[in-house]
Amino acid sequence: MSVTKQEKNKMTVLVIGGSGSGKSSFAEDVLEKFPESRKYYIATMQIYDEEGKKKVERHRRIRKEKGFFTIESPTDVHKNCIKADIKKKDSAAILECISNLVANEMFKEDVIYDRDTVAGKVKSDLWKMISEFNDIVIVSNNVFDDGIDYDDTTTAYISAMGEINRFLVQNADEVHEVVAGIPIQIK
């Protein structure tokens, strides 16, 4: 792993990969290397059922010894960080994960929000977080490789993810793709 601080003394790292690739574990390792004493884990998974609840509990157990302060934020990540009174300038955070966040923002309150509205809102929230946190690691899924034709709603979601991931790549100091547990630095 070659995570290095930039001259601006802030670091934004994007970790991307497929489901079950090991990207979350790698992202946590990256976050632990940052010097800030206060580290936040901003979790975006929306819990719908018992299986989701068990997954969240498992993740919390795994992270317990790492000393992260967890903030559950399935939507409105920037607003929820403000509510949690995070001292962003003196802290580091991991945002896990963009694919959940985009889905939660697109399909909420029994409404399907359009692609441009969702992409704009998520990018705005992400830009604020990148600007405010001293260091941030952002985790995103690669949802583009299966080559399957989807319905219009799913295609809009994938398109929004593509726009947001490109935005993140442009604004990240480092980008790592994790494939079968192996991180590969691509920026």
Textual characterization of the structure:
A hairpin with a 2-residue loop joins strand 5 and strand 6 (111-112). The protein has 187 residues and is an alpha/beta fold. Helix 4 (98-106) packs across helix 5 (115-132), helix 4 (98-106) packs across helix 6 (152-171) and helix 5 (115-132) runs parallel beside helix 6 (152-171). Strands 3-2-4-7-1-8-9 form a seven-stranded mixed beta sheet, sandwiched between helices. It has a two-stranded antiparallel sheet with strand order 5-6. The protein has a single domain, classed as Rossmann fold (3-Layer(aba) Sandwich). It contains six helices and nine strands. It is globular and about 45 Å long.
What is the secondary structure topology, with strand pairs?
Elements: E1 11-17, H1 23-33, E2 38-43, H2 50-63, E3 69-72, H3 77-83, E4 91-96, H4 98-106, E5 107-108, E6 111-112, H5 115-132, E7 135-141, H6 152-171, E8 174-179, E9 182-185
Helix pairs in contact: 4-5, 4-6, 5-6
Short description:
The protein is of the alpha/beta class.
Give a quick set of tags describing it.
24% strand; 7-stranded mixed beta sheet; 187 residues; alpha/beta; Rossmann fold
